[in-house]
Design brief:
elongated; 66% helix; mainly alpha; single chain
Amino acid sequence: MTAPHMLPTESPSPLLTALQRLLAVLVAEDTALRALDLSGIDAATTAKLELEPTLRRALAGPPPSEAEAHELQRLRDEVTTRARDNHRRLRASLVAVTDLVEELTGTTRSTYGRSADGPVRPVLTDSVG
């Protein structure tokens, strides 16, 4: 995919291509997380691991051209947002499953992050003595 501001004859840098591939993997991962598609989640994890060396090489390469800088920033922002959203979704799923197992078994593995009244609520600084 060519960035809108690039000439059609220019080929995208390895970094731009790698970020585009990572974004596509994160979109697929989001879809899999929302559907609780375990094979899709596993495939996304594998794809991210396989993409890591490519990203490292691209980052170690020459700096992007000025023509690509805007598109790289946009992609970086979108990749960061998607990765954080997927991480939140994974974390929420882990907490939900852990809570369900604890409720079903009547056991609690850890009290870290919990109070006697349930999940920890934020404490306002002016309410602390």
